[in-house]
Design brief:
With 208 residues, the chain is mainly α. It has a domain of 139 residues: Tetracycline Repressor, domain 2 (Orthogonal Bundle), CATH 1.10.357. 63% of the residues lie in helices and 4% in strands.
């Protein structure tokens, strides 16, 4: 069984989302960044949320940028691992593999919305930090591009530019974090069904 290592209750499946185990300093930093934006948040704000002093924050992380970097990398590492494990459960079928990747990303955004929302703060990363994060981001796009490319080669998907299709699909999936709220009229599985349909239409899926 495919599992994500180090879950709160031990190993968990790629599509399971037990309660996150963020350190308090990261949890409060995440909440502050989501509520006020990176530039609108100070270390003092985060310390206040924690009920701690500013030096207590610096005990864990050297500055506000380091907090953002830690959150973004934790988020992307988690998502990448889940997508890799999800693919292991699929057959050598581009439509099935694209479906499971879309499901994996949608479930992540739905269950870890605050973490996914922080992806927009890539604009706030310093150049070296941005380069390191973009490298991981590109791995996600490469996974989807590879599947779309194979689908086009096998005439399962319509001819086109797999790189452009992958970029469009990822932008659409990332956008869920901007509006989705747990407890609304759409649950995670509803979202999965909708966005799998959108994805397969985007690539012109041709069942064989």
């Amino acid at each position: 069984m495919s599992q994500v290592q180090g879950g709160p209750r031990g190993d968990v499946r790629w599509d399971e989302y037990p309660e996150s185990e963020l350190l308090p300093v990261l949890r409060h930093a995440r909440d502050a960044f989501v509520a006020n934006g990176y530039n609108g948040t100070t270390v003092r704000d985060i310390a206040s949320r924690m009920g701690q002093t500013v030096p207590a924050i610096y005990y864990y992380y050297e500055n506000k940028q380091a907090l953002l970097v830690a959150l973004l990398h934790r988020s992307m590492d988690d998502l990448l691992e889940r997508c890799r494990l999800a693919q292991l459960e699929t057959r050598d079928d581009p439509a099935e593999q694209l479906t499971v990747l879309v499901r994996c990303i949608v479930l992540y955004v739905a269950h870890r919305r605050e973490m996914a929302f922080l992806d927009a703060e890539i604009r706030s990363l310093e150049p070296a930090n941005r380069e390191a994060y973009v490298f991981k981001r590109d791995q996600m796009q490469a996974m989807i591009t590879r599947v779309i490319t194979i689908g086009m080669e096998r005439s399962v998907f319509s001819p086109g530019d797999p790189h452009s299709d992958a970029r469009a699909l990822i932008m659409m999936l990332r956008g869920i974090a901007n509006w989705y709220r747990p407890g609304g009229h759409l649950g995670p599985e509803d979202l999965c069904r909708q966005y799998v349909t959108y994805a397969l239409r985007l690539v012109g899926h041709q069942p064989v």
